[in-house]
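ok posting inputs for the nicotinamide-adenine-dinucleotide job
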Amino acid sequence: MLEGKLLIGGKWTSCESKFESLNPATGEVFGRACLAGKKEVAEAVEAARLAFPDWKKTDISERARIFNRIGDELLKRKQELKTLITTEMGRPLFESDIELLLTYEMVKYFANEGKKYLEGDAIPIKSDTFSFTRYEPVGVVGIIKPWNYPLLLPFWAIAPALLAGNTAVLKPSDLTPFVGIEIGKICQAAGIPDGVINVVTGDGSTGECLVGSNIDMVSFTGSAETGKNIMKNSAEKLHRISLELGGSDAFIVFKDADIEEAINGAVWGRFMNAGQVCVSPKRIFVESGIADSFIEGFVSRAKRLVIGNGLDPGTDIGPVVSMEQREKLKLQVEDAVMKGAVIECGGKIPPALQDGFYYEPTILTKITPEMKVMCEEVFGPVAVISVFDNMDEAVALANGTVYGLGASVWTKNLDIVMRMSSQLECGMVWVNEVCTLHPECPWCGIKHSGMGKDLSRYGVREFVSVKHVNINFGKGKTRGWWFPYGN
Ligand code: NAD
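and the output
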């Protein structure tokens, strides 16, 4: 049984309240972590505040060198880290391995490229007047992250925030506290000074304490519901906030697309990580004429997926993360069926996997807009497929949601690409691609999917303030627009 501690000011300390971390493949407890309260959170924020002046002054090349070492630490610990991720949140080892490599690439990207995005701009105005901008760290950042990419998402914020000279307190998800603790250990091993990164484990109440504490900014990734709460609670203190929230991405297949490729992309995109991905194609729209063959191919491939414990090498789909998550999924499917949806496959707990939190890959057709599967985010292995007749209808269906994270369009026609990419209401559009990310490219949503920007130059600048410096070299003792106004 693992015992978790809090990282505060470079020291690992315990606290009285504890909570359990479960293995979703078995439902068994595999660790007990500290549930940090107001006192521990305040101590962690104080430690980050104390560390801030020196860290801000540290040369950026030195900060970058530390992040290069963090990348190396990630690779060194690859085996134990991927096993921990799979044990704590359930996904196949192969996918945990990919998460680790994506984290490595992103950390190295910020270490090697981040500096150039933090150099201010020179703005010549007139011969005797000159301005320049400086990018300055915001201060102490509260980083609150979910469980579905428990290593990658905290580092999406830690790497740019710390590289830019901020210090931070990380609050990992209550479903993956031990991956969060490992993040603290990795940063320490790479030489991050005491207090620059602190880790407080706990649940939503710990997150609420962090939002209400003496921080300067919240970097949040999670559900829209929690995001709204954080925005409300930040209003009083006027914290800067960055919110990356849920999604209900459209996957739109036009009849000129390579159908086989689109089917393979949809099956992987929707069922990878047991469907628990923010940009997973949660609503699939197929043009009439190819709908029957698309559905047939999609169902036949989904039926071949192997469901089981993520630690078994042959597993394609692991359990969902918790009993609560599975219950929500069951209710969403029941609601759809009650309103006329047809279950093409799945729709139940696999009979041979009653322990743990498994749910069969499920495909629903005959979908109507008022069903919960269309109005709410469906965070699990449930695919819903509808048919459209023309591009205008496809746009209306895709935009018919409060969410605006990503969309995936399948076509060979450049005219369709240009029109869809301009008309879709979302932050990211993939064409003949699904669920991919590159550290060089921005990651962002609109509408109820939030207002944050991750990765790329935009991701670094999320964590800095712009200061404008204006210099006058010798205009004389007065200006034409100063007093006195008369003569
Ligand atoms: P969640 O909102 O339940 O929890 C996220 C984090 O917030 C956790 O650490 C949790 O303990 C904390 N929290 C809960 N209540 C809080 C409160 N009142 N104040 C402060 N912190 C609080 O989300 P989840 O179930 O962990 O994650 C799944 C969600 O995250 C999905 O909606 C998914 O789409 C979204 N997500 C978005 C992105 C993106 O880039 N847009 C990426 C991954 C996941």
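notes: The longest strand covers residues 129-137. The two ends are 84 Å apart (CA to CA).
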